Amino acid sequence: MLTPKTPLLEIRNLHTVFPSNGKLVHAVDSVNLTLNEGEILGVVGESGCGKSTLLLSLLRLLRYPGRVESGQVRFRGRDLLKLNNSEMRALRGKEISMIFQDPLSTLNPAFSIGEQIGESLRLHHMVEGNNLP
């Protein structure tokens, strides 16, 4: 539960690594950030600097052999890195989600973005029918 002082998202000392040629590549290295309710955060940087890896890490969607080596990711006060798989599935899409950067593989050009986001809201019982907020 959020109290007036609880950040919406808080990341502390997040480290994500990928093994490569017997060594660890530090794709996300000691990231710290706090996002409060109502704030907007933009993550920018050069291609390959770790933006997508950061988001995949906090959603626990990294592909093997990548892994979060250490740190905390708190969303609404709950450490996402300590939740079990079913708890994470319940959060994804309903409370926290990501639209991946390749729109051709993520979004269907035959439908509007509103229709596609609305579908996710309906699947998670956040709206009924076509009653989008």
- Please provide the ordered H/E string of secondary-structure elements: EEHEEHHH
Mean pLDDT equals: 85
Low-confidence stretches are: none
Structural class: alpha+beta
Share in β-strands: 25-35%
Q: Report on the biggest sheet.
A: 4 strands, antiparallel
Strand order of the largest sheet: 2-1-3-4
What does this structure look like?
The protein contains four helices and four strands, in the order E-E-H-E-E-H-H-H. The protein has a domain at 9-82. By secondary structure, the chain is of the alpha+beta class. Strand 1 and strand 2 (23-35) form a beta hairpin. Strands 2-1-3-4 form a four-stranded antiparallel sheet. The model has no long low-confidence stretch (mean pLDDT 85).
What topology emerges from the helices and strands here?
Blueprint: E1 9-20, E2 23-35, H1 51-58, E3 67-75, E4 78-79, H2 85-91, H3 103-106, H4 113-123
Antiparallel strand pairs: 1-2, 1-3, 3-4
In short:
The protein is of the alpha+beta class and 133 residues long.
Give keywords:
4 helices, alpha+beta
